[in-house]
Amino acid sequence: MSSGTRDDQGISQDDYKILNVKFSSWCDDRSHEGLFNRLKCTYSDLLDNATFSRINKDKKTIDLLNALHAAGRLSRNNLKLLHDTITITNQVGLREELENLLPPLSNVEISSFTQHRQTVLKFFSNLSDKDVDSINARFNDPIKQYSDRWDMLFDLEKCRGIIDEVKWNKFIEDLEKIGLKVKAPAQTTGQNPAHTTAQAPAHITQASAHTTAQAPAHTTQASAQTTAQALAQTTQNPGPDLPDGRLTENSVLLQNEDEVIRQDPPENPRPRESNEEEEEEEEEEQKCLKDNWKNIVAISCIVLAFVFAILAIVLRESIPAVIGNNIVVFCSIVGLIIVVYKMATEKKNENKERNKKYTTDDST
Q: Which of 41, 95, 158, 183 is most buried, most CB within 10 Å of its CB?
């Protein structure tokens, strides 16, 4: 310990101040490596946006520690946060630097940060520079000029809300869509992982693996035997489907260990004949509509021919005879063409229906 005295509840106030100064000095000397921005992401869940906005002006680690102290996260009686910070940021040299000021702890499990926070930090630590550029291009158009990957993480997380515990799996899926080969554990909500360790104890992991690898054989055999007996009993006992107990083709047999459940299939879909009838009706309506338009055009042309003929007679002095006669002839010809075309079309349809009827009779 330093020259400051230590009370029963923690280190002394003098030692606490010296500890914060040395911790901050170490981190500020490595700001060019992105350590300050990494600390901001590490403490992302512990401080609000207003505090980070104020701290960003000077970018001093001591401001971070003072804010954590003011928020009740750090004190001379509770130094667990500093221990966990050193572990999660992998600053081995800093632990050695502070070994005379930072009392060792019997419990080395990380409890100051949630499992999600640990996952995010580890994931971004393992990204390559090319991966960072790809993520920048995926979520920014145009791309932003971040100082480092931690600056980008802080922007995506705290400023824009693209990353959080609920959206983490979707974020990973987005990265896979752009070709990043990421390996990140899926996040599960509804837990309180603040007291979750970075790694499970070895004896628990080994015990779980041993139990899974050596499952009792008689358990599997008993399950199979129970299922077979249930199926045999269902076949022997008459059921509601047929008098002899056999299942109809429309019944579905489901087995769930010692239960056999009959599940009726869904109702039959709508008959195909009704759909064909509807299509024929629609075609008939469209055909009638076309015929009506043809009739209207033909009648209009004939009426126009008569109108121009009358006008030519009445206004024979004002309108040259050649022009009047040409208009009358043109309208008459158009009207006659439409009438003839309509009659030919109807005749063709009648022949088509007659041939169809004969074909149907022959097949019958």
A: 41
